[in-house]
Specification:
The complex is a heterodimer of chains A (81) and B (224).
Chain A: E1 2-10, H1 17-28, E2 41-47, H2 52-67, E3 73-80
Antiparallel strand pairs in A: 1-2, 1-3
Chain B: E1 2-7, H1 14-23, E2 27-32, E3 44-47, H2 67-77, E4 81-85, H3 87-94, E5 101-103, E6 111-119, E7 135-142, E8 146-148, H4 151-159, E9 163-168, E10 184-188, E11 194-197, H5 213-222
The chains are: A alpha+beta (81), B alpha/beta (224).
């Protein structure tokens, strides 16, 4: 059994309105040293798989087909044993 | 003329859509998403608005895996006419039947109001009753209506006359409520048989409710 941690964020060139709003809120709390705020989502699940390569291939497919919309989003995958 | 209207869990505009097409004299059927086929006498398939699957993950992201969507894709690929309104537009982009994607509104607010739209390309069955440059007034009601497409895709939309409508003010000057690329409110595919828009023409069928500009829009489908 391993754990998969998928992070999904808007692509670098795509305006992240939520990130911008959070940035403004942080500024209004006087954190003037903040920049490049991005808001994304994290999807965590267990995977009944021992072969790390196969697990990576499966999770990549999940991201491409469902977890991310690759027109606007990038994703990262982390596998934890 | 038979209009088939898709219904997912969370769809909420199917009866408005049915009422609109009925008032134009069409025969209608509401099709539950578990169906694995599209009725063979369908002349137009409408993916109605709402919040399919509660907009979980992304608007339209789960609906694209409903059993009926395979049949919808086949129907569209065979040249069948498909119209996606609001959440239906989101479902069609998620399913890859229309280019681009819909992001959260730039203001982060849910927008629910009447908005003016300018007809950009009428060389298609949807808008043939209107002239390019015409301004129509139609309600919008969405949280994720911020149309995005990359530069390459945008060039293709322009080159193939795939941009149907843009948001504007009452004189037709561009006015962007949600941050959409080039204020785009609706697009079609290259083959011009699949159409999607965020505004709700089915809610603009009676003057007493604010506008009947939706009639001219939806009528295009009925006479094709």
């Amino acid at each position: 059994m391993m754990k998969a941690v998928v992070n999904v964020f808007l692509k670098a060139g795509v305006l992240d309105s939520q990130g911008k709003a959070v940035h403004h809120a942080l500024e209004s709390l006087h954190f003037s040293n903040v920049s490049n705020v991005r808001v994304g989502k994290q999807i965590i699940f267990s995977l009944d798989e021992k072969d790390e390569k196969k697990a990576m291939a499966d999770v990549t497919k999940m991201c491409e087909e469902l977890l991310a919309n690759t027109v606007i989003e990038d994703y990262t995958i982390e596998l934890v044993k | 003329m038979k209009v088939t209207i898709l219904q997912f869990p969370g769809t909420n505009c199917e009866y408005d859509t049915q009422n609109a097409f009925k008032s134009l004299g069409a025969e209608t059927e509401i099709l539950w998403h578990k169906s694995e086929s599209v009725p063979s006498d369908t002349d137009l398939l409408v993916v109605a608005g709402g919040f399919s699957y509660g907009d979980y993950l992304r608007s339209g992201a789960i609906a694209k895996f409903s059993p009926v969507m395979k049949a919808v894709t086949k129907y569209a690929n065979n040249g069948g006419k498909v119209l996606g309104i609001c959440n239906g537009f989101q479902v069609l982009t998620e399913a890859g039947l229309l280019p681009g994607a819909l992001k959260r509104n730039e203001s982060l607010h849910f927008l629910s109001k009447h908005h003016n739209l300018k007809v950009i390309n009428n060389d298609n069955i949807f808008l043939e009753k209107l002239n390019n440059g015409d301004v129509v007034n139609v309600p919008i009601a969405h949280h994720d209506g911020n149309y995005y497409i990359d530069e390459k895709g945008l060039k293709e939309l322009y080159a193939n006359n795939q941009i149907l409508l843009k948001y504007c003010d009452e004189s037709g000057n561009e006015k962007n409520p949600n941050g959409s690329v080039d204020a785009i409110a609706g697009v079609c595919n290259k083959e011009k048989n699949v159409f999607g828009l965020m505004p709700h023409p089915e809610r603009a069928m009676e003057k007493i409710l604010g506008s009947d500009d939706g009639i001219k829009m939806l009528q295009g489908f009925l006479e094709a």
